[in-house]
Amino acid sequence: MSQALTGRDASSWTGLQKYGVNIGGWAAGGINYNINNPSDRSNGPVSMTDRNEEFHLYQLNLFIEKAVTKASTWDVGGRFDFMFGTDTRYTQATGHWDMGLISQRDLRFYDIALPQAYVEVFAPIGNGLSGKFGHFYTIIGYESVPSPPNFFSSHTYSFKSSPFTTTGALFSYALNEQWSVNLGAVTGADNFDRDLGAWSHMSGLTWTNADTGTTVSFSIMQGDVYKNQSSELVYYSAILQQNLGKWHYVLQHDRGAQQNAIAQGQNADWYSIVQYLTYDIDDQLGVGLRGEWFRDQNGFRYSAGEAGYYAMTVGLNWKPKGWLMIRPEVRYDWSEAQLAPFDAGHQIDQVLLGIDAVVQF
């Protein structure tokens, strides 16, 4: 936005552009209306867009980044993100990092998160090897914590139940023009230093065919959640993306399992299938449909006991300016559960009407 209004971006103002450093960010805010009109104003178990008839700033994200140059020489870069808003409740990492920076008694649903702070090194080995060291977003899943890449304002149950951030090291290597691989060692899902002895591996494999517009990826995280007890978490995500002209289709399957998650000797399993179909009407307007089935086998991810959750979302993605995106949507959720999960335990379904705007600068 700043470049569109002034002809200069933040990096040029600070004089950092000549060093390859980029400064920018975005702000995302919106409101939802729940047909059930819940007395506690909660849209749960829907996450992030979880408040009824309350306008919220979901994300105010500022970043400074030096992207590595992948050429014939070594290069060093990195990135740091600062996020304020209501989404930060879901994106903080346990341990001595970004939890408790703001007391919720002071700002209710608002908090601060530092979702990324890493150094990246590129080595001209083979086709080029890059490594991230620090705190960064996970490679697992299709939807992202940063709001701008997402077509819809709301998020899936699968997204809420997947890892968001990781801390450690992640290496990426392109085997050839179609195949690439990721391999990392991290301190688990959404954890900074709570249990430093409980390490996990995070790896992924991606195949891309530019001629057919097809991308297939598989990523997995596996390791103990806690250092001093049996608590192995295995979470994988398999994603198919297919572009057909102006049509874009995504099929995602996730599965998670954790030992002793509910009580000693009681494991938890959850899994989902999500499908997206979007169509680009023109360069400024797109229409999309998303459907999801999420199975909370043991009632671990949500609070309705053993349950199946279903959701259908239809929405528009309107970009009247290069720096502005507006996302209205209609979402219907229903369930088959031991306990009614919506409207504070009174309803088995709900309809949400939502709209948000994302401003990039």
In words, what does this structure look like?
- By secondary structure, the chain is mainly β.
- It has a single domain, classed as Porin (Beta Barrel).
- Helix content is 6%, strand content 54%.
- It is built from five helices and 16 strands.
- It has helices at residues 2-6, 10-14, 88-91, 104-107, 157-160; strands at 21-34, 56-66, 75-85, 111-123, 129-137, 165-174, 179-186, 200-209, 214-224, 232-244, 247-263, 266-280, 285-296, 307-321, 324-337, 349-360.
- A 16-stranded antiparallel β-barrel has the order 1-2-3-4-5-6-7-8-9-10-11-12-13-14-15-16.
- Strand 6 (165-174) and strand 7 form a beta hairpin.
- The longest helix has 5 residues, at 2-6.
- The protein starts with a helix and ends with a strand.
Number of domains: 1
CATH topology: Porin
Q: Whole-number average pLDDT?
A: 94
Intertermini distance? 5 Å
User: Class in CATH?
Assistant: Mainly Beta
Structural class: mainly beta
Query: Regions with pLDDT < 50 over 5+ consecutive residues?
Result: none
Q: Would you identify the CATH H-level superfamily?
A: Porin
Q: So how many helices? A: 5
Using the CA coordinates, give the radius of gyration.
Answer: 21 Å
Largest sheet: 16 strands, antiparallel, barrel
Q: What series of H and E elements makes up the topology?
A: HHEEEHHEEHEEEEEEEEEEE
Portion in strands: over 45%
